[in-house]
TrEMBL record:
<keyword id="KW-0521">NADP</keyword>
<keyword id="KW-0444">Lipid biosynthesis</keyword>
<dbReference type="InterPro" id="IPR011032">
    <property type="entry name" value="GroES-like_sf"/>
</dbReference>
<dbReference type="InterPro" id="IPR013149">
    <property type="entry name" value="ADH-like_C"/>
</dbReference>
<dbReference type="InterPro" id="IPR036291">
    <property type="entry name" value="NAD(P)-bd_dom_sf"/>
</dbReference>
<dbReference type="Pfam" id="PF08240">
    <property type="entry name" value="ADH_N"/>
</dbReference>
<dbReference type="InterPro" id="IPR051034">
    <property type="entry name" value="Mito_Enoyl-ACP_Reductase"/>
</dbReference>
<keyword id="KW-0496">Mitochondrion</keyword>
<feature type="domain" description="Enoyl reductase (ER)">
    <location>
        <begin position="61"/>
        <end position="403"/>
    </location>
</feature>
<keyword id="KW-0275">Fatty acid biosynthesis</keyword>
<dbReference type="InterPro" id="IPR013154">
    <property type="entry name" value="ADH-like_N"/>
</dbReference>
<keyword id="KW-0443">Lipid metabolism</keyword>
<keyword id="KW-0560">Oxidoreductase</keyword>
<dbReference type="GO" id="GO:0141148">
    <property type="term" value="F:enoyl-[acyl-carrier-protein] reductase (NADPH) activity"/>
</dbReference>
<keyword id="KW-0276">Fatty acid metabolism</keyword>
<keyword id="KW-0809">Transit peptide</keyword>
<dbReference type="GO" id="GO:0005739">
    <property type="term" value="C:mitochondrion"/>
</dbReference>
């Protein structure tokens, strides 16, 4: 069959290997199965997609020092078992920044890529071969084109929305990528949800969901206590608990607009919002020690003294689950908590859960979360969107990148 997509053999740099390219004659049902898909494909003018604008780094270090914007060359042929995706939205998570710093257990994937750095005063537009990793681990992309599928590779329809299968395999802060289809998973049903909503589903809402489901049996009316309650995970915990009839005690750091933030969290379903500085007050002690139902679960985003102060309110046999270490302080608990109250301290890592559970299980969880999003019962945390425009001077682009990858408020790249 002759196809307009057919191209001659060219070298393609992906990872450390140079793949010999095969013909891109595609399966009829992928490219020509419906008018819609053909139109869709033409709308993106695939032959014009020869590069991906990406945030890359050559070695780990502080994000504001090591990240640069580059145009990475893309082949116009897609090898067997690979797909060309267009990224739509990708959040910046604390773990992404830790990964760039080299402080996260999942390291960036460095590989040789043909690229041109976009920087002020760059004198050459000739691509050079550089070993870089692309930042970002989470995000949603759309399939634009699929290579020949093999027995071992997955097949996707053009137009399908996809997420990375595992952290660390695909850098998501880029406009396009050619990636193994086995590193992708299709979003179960993207009707009625936006790319921005879907792009965050794999980490924060899923973490909240698993921590509420997998450690203790929570009955309606039971309590969960958590710190970092205004975080992405914390807000998902509040909303899932509201949906399941569970009460939440939410600890946040004191701030000028405490009342405003407290009201915002209550509007999501928070039962109580408490300042970290009030945790030792007698009023709070009296209230939390006299609840009608037990505080069975503590969720720790922070570590240090704030965690100790929170854990003392856990009921006998309660479980403290640590999932974040924002204060960079260790979790220390008095011996008496362990001996006399039988408190158990555990950890949770979403990456480990994905590795040890089937794709079916994650799809069931995402289906549930997406359905809550569709009904407006699970709203995303406020994030500043940074439009990754192709236009802009090199210094404007560098400014956007620095803004998006700074610590503090939460950002999302949209492409
Ligand atoms: N284990 C897992 O699988 C998993 C999954 C998802 C996330 N996480 C971790 O969970 C944490 C939160 O992630 P996120 O995306 O939800 O973050 P986020 O939305 O950026 O929220 C960060 C939270 O941390 C608080 N915080 C920041 N610095 C702090 C400090 N020095 N002391 C006390 N609190 C501090 C912030 O409070 P303020 O508003 O007061 O600054 C905010 O509540 C991160 O550590 C992340 O790596 C882990």
């Amino acid at each position: 069959m002759s196809s307009p997509l057919h191209k001659t053999l060219q070298p393609l740099f992906l990872g450390r290997q140079s793949y010999p390219l095969h013909s891109t004659l595609q399966k009829t049902n992928i490219y020509f199965g419906s008018k819609h898909k053909l139109f869709h494909q033409c709308a993106y003018n695939l032959s014009a997609i020869r590069k991906s604008r990406a945030a890359v780094y050559e070695k780990p270090g502080p994000p504001n020092e090591v990240l640069k914007i580059a145009d990475i060359s893309l082949s116009d042929d897609i090898p067997e078992g690979m797909a060309l995706i267009r990224m739509m939205a990708s959040p910046v998570n604390p773990s992404d920044l830790n990964q760039i710093e080299g402080l996260y257990p999942v390291k960036g994937q460095f590989s040789n890529r043909e690229l041109v750095y976009i920087e002020e005063g760059a004198d050459s537009q000739t691509p050079k071969n550089v070993s870089v990793a692309i930042g970002g681990n989470e995000g949603v992309g759309e399939i634009l084109k699929v290579g020949e599928t093999t027995e071992d590779s997955k097949n996707f329809e053009v137009g399908a929305w996809v997420l990375p299968n595992q952290s660390g395999k695909i850098g998501t802060w880029c406009t396009h990528a050619i990636v193994p289809t086995n590193d992708l998973v299709a979003v179960p049903n993207c009707n009625g949800v936006t790319p921005e909503q879907v792009s965050t589903i794999k980490v924060n809402p899923s973490t909240a969901y698993r921590m509420l489901k997998d450690f203790v049996d929570l009955s309606p009316g039971d309590y969960v206590i958590q710190n970092g309650a205004n975080s992405g995970v914390g807000r998902a915990v509040i909303q899932l608990c509201r949906e399941w009839g569970i009460n939440t005690i939410n600890i946040i750091r004191d701030r000028d607009n405490f009342d405003e933030l407290s009201e915002e969290l209550k509007s999501l379903g928070a039962t109580m919002v408490i300042k970290d500085t009030d945790l030792k007050s007698s009023d709070v002690s009296v209230t939390l020690n006299n609840l009608e139902q037990p505080i069975k679960l503590g969720l720790n985003c922070v570590g240090g003294k704030q965690t100790l102060a929170m854990t003392k309110f856990l009921s006998r046999h309660g479980i403290l689950v640590t999932y974040g270490g924002m204060s960079r302080q260790p979790v220390t608990l008095p011996t008496s908590f362990l001996i006399f109250k039988d408190i158990q301290a555990k950890g949770f890592w979403m990456t480990r859960w994905y590795k040890s559970h089937s794709e079916q299980e994650r799809l069931e969880m995402w289906d549930h979360l997406l359905s809550l999003m569709r009904q407006g019962k699970l709203v995303s945390q406020p994030m500043t969107q940074i439009n990754w425009s192709e236009n802009g001077t090199p210094s404007e682009l560098a400014e956007k990148l620095a803004l998006g990858t700074g610590w503090g408020s939460k950002h999302m790249f949209v492409f």
